[in-house]
Amino acid sequence: MDGSDDSKNPSHRPKVGHRKSRNGCHKCKSRRVKCDETRPICNNCNRLGLSCLWPQPTKPTPSRIVTRGGSREALPRPGASDRGNGGRAPSPDSNQDSAAAGNSAGIQKRFGIQQPDYLDEPLFGSSVIDSANDAEMVLPESRSRRMLEHRLMQHYIFNMSKPFPVSAGPNWSDLFMKKVPELALRYENLLYTLLANAANHLFRSEPQNMELLAARRSYLVAAVREQRKMVDKITSTEAADSFNVEWADALCLASLMLVVHSWAALQDRPLEPYSPPLEWLQMGRGAGVLIWMSIDAMMKSGKRKDGETSSMMTVANSYPRFGADESYFDADMRRNFTGVLTQKLPSGDDWDDDETRETYEKALSYVGSIQHAIDHGEPVYALYRRIQCFALIIPRRFSEFLEERRPRALVIMAHFFATVGQLPCVWWIGDGEGGREPTAKREIRAISKVLPSEWHAQLVWPLDMLGLR
């Protein structure tokens, strides 16, 4: 089931006699196959579920859009860098190193706290950012750009400041309606994330608007780059005395909104041939590390500089309290789905490996906890939080099993999407707006097409829950 081993499949062997792709991705060049240069993920890498990285341009370009001394600069030309290196863009290897530099180990050392092993993960190694270097994505300063940004901010406030249909309370509503826009005026990472999400939401109702398409992409690139810079500050020794709670709030809130953006992207991704949603899971794991560490530091810090408590504590203290209560990993939660683990079918799994068993047990228990919450009538906002946090807290190895396309991991993923499909949809979860099939149904249908026939009996429940049989 491992789609990365091309040598075992004659149809995937490197072809000879093709025209060389001068601007192809690194993976296609190393495999000596023609790259179709589709960005951010070429069709070859998308088909095989590989990480798709691109050469970086050698010409430096602007990197900020905020006002500097009365003049505004263009959005970053994706792929450019203003981190030094003599004005040269980093090599692919140095780009990887930069992503790895902002890792959980550095934060752990910085704050002197211990994190759970399953959160040992690089923070922002997204191939979406590493591979973005299209010149046409630059949005130069203009009146139309100012009007676009005004429209995006207004759209967020009036249409997106309630992430769930029902609020968890007045503090939750104030957080996203009032405090997020206020913090966005002081922290570029949060500003760019807000604008990227607003452009993404608007583009769904205006799919022919190329200005929104370019804005969605460019602001996302800018958001993650600024996010990485803030992570680098956390892990640097110079930051020892500069940590403040408001700064951490901006970092965590942007992380949550980036996860929303990556989830929403599932609605548009091609599913033939099928590849697991690894980009979303990767973004979620990185955000989970960052949020967990920052909240721990906030609890030690106590107050913001102005005396106000952390905004992120509103999220941390809302039900369900992730981390404080890990009952979602209890064995009882997976009781109704135990057949997924006990079936002795070809799977590529080593059940003598305790970590493999624990990975599957935790992932399946978490899915079962969502269904348990649905069956017991939990508030809608709590159900959405459970759905959203799946990518933040599941074990890292589960994503590795998905990347290898192990049947058991695919079945668990189908069960997860079956719980998603039972909720009243919000825009980022994929509500089927515009005649499109909802994301949950699309993903389950795609999994059923690639799952080995001997495993199809394990898809009966997901298919029946969403009326796909």
TrEMBL record:
Listed PROSITE patterns: ZN2_CY6_FUNGAL_1, ZN2_CY6_FUNGAL_2
Zn(2)-C6 fungal-type domain residues: 24-54
Membrane-traversing stretches: none
Keywords associated with the record: Nucleus
Region: Disordered, residue numbers: 1-24, 56-103
Nucleus found in the keyword field: yes
Molecular-function annotations in GO: DNA-binding transcription factor activity, RNA polymerase II-specific; zinc ion binding
Alphabetical list of InterPro entries matching this protein: Fun_TF (IPR021858), Zn2-C6_fun-type_DNA-bd_sf (IPR036864), Zn2-C6_fungal_TF (IPR052400), Zn2Cys6_DnaBD (IPR001138)
Amino acid composition bias (Basic residues), ranges on this chain: 10-24
Pfam families referenced in this protein's UniProt entry, alphabetically: Fungal_trans_2, Zn_clus
Protein's name in the database: Zn(2)-C6 fungal-type domain-containing protein
Organism: Diplogelasinospora grovesii
